[in-house]
Design a protein that fits this description.
heterodimer; A: mainly alpha; elongated; B: mainly alpha
Chain lengths: 280, 315
């Protein structure tokens, strides 16, 4: 072990984890500060369609003459923001239902668990298609559909984590003290469930992020004029046959962020498993 | 063991039924009804009433569900809303194309993944092993279309070895099909090989830690003989499970890859019809995808039961 390894919150940060944290931080900053960083507006044409890259337009112009770099920067906002909202919602649903199932037990647990088993048997993409074919691809529809489908996976983890905690002595003690279920969930279970759930948040974020991008790429996700990375790949895809690398930029952005988040999650899981002996 | 297999089969049938119910319910949860969703803004009271009657929306949902399900079992999926064609005729050739692509990818990917996984297990900790780990992480996190466009850019456009569009026609010869579908196949192989390879490596290595392997080492057998003859048979069950899981994934991953390469398969059709709100076609495609997915998972479980030596003896 190196003596002078980088540390964060008292934990050693491995090289992949450093890369991961940097990638995530840069992406978040770009998403937050998009209007300040972007050299041009995302929606206004500033030159000829498919103009080659030059000093002003580092990545060139797109199919209607918009600055590709600026669209990438604004796309970060849409892609990352949307995925964060969906992941947060899916966690809210999944964690509440999972904790409820473990604290209530009995038929509540049975009913919720069977329903989730059923949803997990369906390929998510296919089920999303069925719902979107009827409801269309408005943003609220996308958010709720993906969040509900994804919450099944959160539910499984939240339930099993909570089940392990519920059976411990301090929860028993709280019950005997006469604490209500609200106290038990928020004061006894939640603090102990945070570490495994944080790592899971990263993984679910990746999944949602790739899922939204795939839907947009297929033309069924984010609709124009809004730009996200997935729909940019779709818009630029034909150019690949003319030797342009345009669709590769947004696709590479998607790939980099996913790998970055995965590095961070691996690191968090390794900390967690060292501290507790057993991984999540 | 027979009891276990029958139990698993029963569960599979039940899941299939539940999945079909879910697909049906998915189109029923909308505010308003199917007719107004299909017509959107162009709806007039008359056209709405006519479409409702055409779709049989005046009947209770539960009856319509069983009509649809039993129709589907007989191969009658109704008619497309977009062009009035019989849904089965529309999807049958597409489904054949999709199965061709999936089988093509599976035949290349499975032996490759198991072979490389074994090699990584034999050379555990070596350069090859580390390279494989890095490569796996990359392909797992990277979206399919990124790999696909990289291949198109470098292999199809720059080198010109393979066509970038895989628009096979019904009368293409078998060799032509293999040629046209090469890049879509390669993309799918890259996506699924990594995961299968890692699982093969992991399950072989976990068996390698058991006492009887130590015995084999002490007997002086070579590393490769131990891995292939002693460890592999016992690691087979988890490997089969992960292979089936990846084949099931293949069925879904095919949707994106087909769209990239404009390959006339079921996935591409489904994507088109979703944006056209052509519900009967979407339902039919969804049912076929879900059924394939569930069948593959079920087969995996049954093969795992059959390949487990401990379950082979009747208790």
């Amino acid at each position: 072990m190196k003596k002078n390894a980088m540390r964060l919150f008292g934990y050693k940060v491995s090289i992949p984890a450093q890369i991961g944290i940097a990638v995530v931080a840069i992406n978040l900053l770009v998403a937050l500060l998009a209007p300040l960083i972007a050299p041009f507006d995302q929606a206004t044409p500033v030159g000829d369609a498919w103009a080659d890259p030059d000093a002003q337009h580092w990545l060139g112009l797109d199919n209607v003459g918009r600055d590709i770099l600026s669209r990438l920067i604004y796309g970060a906002r849409m892609s990352i923001g949307l995925s964060l909202i969906i992941t947060a919602l899916s966690f809210a649903i999944g964690v509440i239902a999972g904790f409820a199932a473990s604290v209530a037990g009995g038929w509540v647990d049975q009913a919720l668990s069977r329903l989730v088993d059923l949803l997990l048997w369906m390929p998510t993409l296919i089920f999303a298609f069925v719902v979107l074919s009827v409801l269309g691809s408005a943003l609220p529809v996308l958010i709720v559909t993906i969040a509900v489908l994804d919450s099944t996976k959160v539910f499984r983890l939240a339930r099993s984590v909570a089940m392990n905690i519920v059976s411990l002595e301090f929860v028993e003690a709280a019950r005997l003290r006469g604490e209500g279920w609200w106290w038990i969930v928020t004061r006894e279970i939640l603090p102990n469930a945070v570490p495994p759930l944080t790592a899971e948040f990263g993984l679910r974020f990746c999944f949602t992020f790739l899922f939204i991008a795939a839907l947009s790429f297929l033309g069924l996700g984010v609709q124009p004029p809004d730009a996200d990375w997935g729909s940019m790949v779709k818009d630029y895809r034909d150019m690949i046959n003319f030797g342009s690398a345009a669709p590769l930029y947004p696709a590479a952005a998607i790939a980099t962020l996913t790998i970055g988040v995965n590095f961070v999650v691996d690191w968090m899981l390794s900390i967690h498993s060292r501290g507790q002996g057993e991984g999540a | 063991m027979l009891k276990l297999v029958v139990h698993r089969l029963g569960l599979g049938v039940l899941t299939l039924f539940a999945a079909s119910a879910l697909i049906f319910v998915g189109t029923e949860i909308l505010p308003g009804d199917l007719a107004s969703a299909i017509l959107q803004n162009s709806a007039t009271p008359e056209s709405l009433a006519k479409l409702r009657l055409d779709l049989g929306l005046d009947r209770p949902a539960i009856l319509r569900f069983f009509d649809w399900l039993f129709g589907a079992l007989r191969g009658d999926f109704g008619h497309s809303l977009a062009n009035g064609r019989d849904v089965l005729e529309e999807i049958a050739p597409r489904f054949a194309n999709t199965m061709f692509l999936a089988a093509y990818a599976a035949i290349v990917a499975v032996p490759l993944a198991v072979g490389l996984g074994l090699l990584a297990a034999i050379r555990q900790g070596g350069v090859f092993d580390r390279l494989i780990n890095l490569f796996t992480l990359m392909t797992i996190s990277v979206p399919e279309y990124f790999l696909a466009y990289l291949l198109i850019k470098f292999v199809a456009v720059d080198l010109g070895w393979f066509p970038s569009l895989a628009n096979v026609s019904p009368d293409s010869s078998f060799a032509d099909r293999l040629y046209y579908a090469f890049l879509p196949m390669l993309t799918l192989v890259l996506v699924i090989v990594a995961h299968m390879m890692r699982m093969t490596r992991a399950s072989v290595l976990s068996v390698m830690a058991s006492p009887y392997i130590e015995m084999a080492i002490l007997k002086g057998l070579t590393k490769s003989r131990i891995v292939v003859r002693h460890a592999l048979p016992n690691a087979l069950a988890p490997i089969i499970a992960v292979v089936a899981l990846n084949l099931a994934y293949l069925i879904v991953g095919v949707v994106v890859v087909e769209t990239v390469f404009v390959y006339p398969g079921l996935g591409q059709l489904m994507v088109d019809e979703v944006s056209k709100h052509d519900v009967p076609v979407v339902q039919a495609c969804g049912l076929i995808f879900a059924a394939t997915f569930i069948l593959l998972n079920m087969t995996a479980d049954i093969l795992a039961i059959l390949s487990n030596p401990r379950l082979r003896q009747p208790r």
